[in-house]
Specification:
The chain is mainly alpha-helical. 58% of the residues lie in helices and 0% in strands. The model has no long low-confidence stretch (mean pLDDT 84).
Length: 76
């Protein structure tokens, strides 16, 4: 937070440790999205709940999309 109690607006204001954590979180999120897209591309449509094209924009939603894909998409 800045002197007025507002949120930081620049990465220059974030400590080196904070930037490292943000970088790791970004890599994890990108990895989840990549794995979800890879799984969607390689999984037969019969094994995916709903039409495959519907899952593409869902996966693009940060964090929630890939996690939703892995927990909801497969027919039980």
């Amino acid at each position: 937070m800045d002197e007025q109690g507002g949120m930081m607006t620049s990465t220059k204001e974030v400590s080196a440790g904070g930037r490292a954590v943000m970088g790791v979180l970004a890599l994890v999120q990108a990895g989840l999205a990549f794995l979800a897209f890879w799984d969607l591309a390689h999984r037969p449509a019969a094994q995916v709940r709903g039409p495959k094209p519907v899952w593409i924009p869902v996966i693009l939603v940060n964090w929630l999309g890939p996690i939703t894909y892995f927990y909801v998409h497969r027919d039980r």
